[in-house]
Specification:
10 helices, NAD(P)-dependent oxidoreductase, about 280 residues, Rossmann fold, 13 strands, single chain
């Protein structure tokens, strides 16, 4: 199968290319930076330099590649610019979908998020509604609605990505906050997924039916549960408490649908994943 991977140099994209190649697929990977073309070739993908905000260029690129499927792993979070990331989800996804439809592509798989469900006591499933009051909603709703226009559009609702190259890596943004003592123990839910498992889900999704699928590990946890384990792995000071009467926020997320489709996280719990982190050597 010929795959066009949009966002091929990102955290998931650069893990996904070798998986696709090993599975026998031909891969073309997009980047907006010409200097990253060599990285893509090294991973096994043909580089396609294109700015996803340029609708005409995206249309031309998809038409030239003539892929059987498009995998959308585009994000813009390197500077923690959430507004830019939302705009990418809205405009970039629309351009990809329109280009794919014009080229006769039937399948699109796209990266979404799993922490947007309305509050509830039970673990959220894909049948639960998303919370329109949360800031990422506009971008996520636009992305998921656009992908649903495809003959077969699969939306991967990833949990919080961790592993090398993510914000939770020892040199990442979350690690910096933990070392600075700016995160507190609280009853806020997080459902994690290792970036390697996120990539394996994208490969598996080539055979999945249309619709949303939660891609999270087996062990949703509150900050009060995971933060001490994560902080210990970093060698960081013990985090403070958010207060005895802090209200629970967020929601645990179920991966039952993904499991029923045959996907299984190789890192079943963040407890194992955090314990395997290699913290940078201290210099003080």
């Amino acid at each position: 199968m010929k795959i066009l991977l949009a966002g091929a140099t990102g955290v998931v994209g650069r893990r996904l290319i070798p998986l696709l190649v090993q599975a026998g697929h031909e891969v073309a990977g997009t980047t907006r930076r010409p200097e990253r073309a060599g990285m893509l070739r090294g991973l096994g993908a043909a580089p396609v330099v294109v700015d996803v905000f340029d609708a005409a260029a995206v249309r031309s690129a998809v038409a030239a590649e003539r892929p059987d499927a498009v995998i959308h792993q585009l994000t813009d979070l390197s500077d923690e610019d959430f507004e830019a990331n939302s705009q990418l989800r809205i405009e970039g996804t629309r351009n990809l979908v329109e280009a794919a439809k014009a080229a006769g592509v039937e399948t699109m798989i796209a990266q979404s998020i799993a922490w947007l469900y309305v509050p509830g006591d039970a673990a959220a499933t894909e049948a639960d509604p998303l919370d329109a009051h949360l800031p990422p909603y506009a971008g996520i709703a636009a992305l998921e609605n656009a992908v649903a226009e495809m003959p077969r559009g699969v939306v991967l609702r990833y949990g919080a990505l961790y592993g090398p190259g993510t914000w939770y890596a020892p040199d990442g943004a979350i690690a910096e906050r933990v070392r600075a003592g700016s995160l507190r123990l609280a009853p806020a839910w997080t459902s994690f997924v290792h970036a390697d498992d996120a990539a394996s889900a994208a490969l598996a999704a080539l055979d999945w039916p249309a619709g949303a699928v939660n891609v999270v590990d087996d062990d949703p946890a509150t900050t009060a549960d995971w933060l001490p384990v994560y902080g210990a792995a970093l060698g960081a000071p013990t985090p403070g408490n958010a207060g005895k009467h802090a209200a629970a926020t967020g929601r645990a997320v179920s991966n039952a649908k993904a499991l029923s489709l045959g996907w299984k996280p190789q890192v079943a719990s963040w407890r194992t994943g955090f314990a395997q982190m290699d913290a940078p050597a201290r210099t003080d």
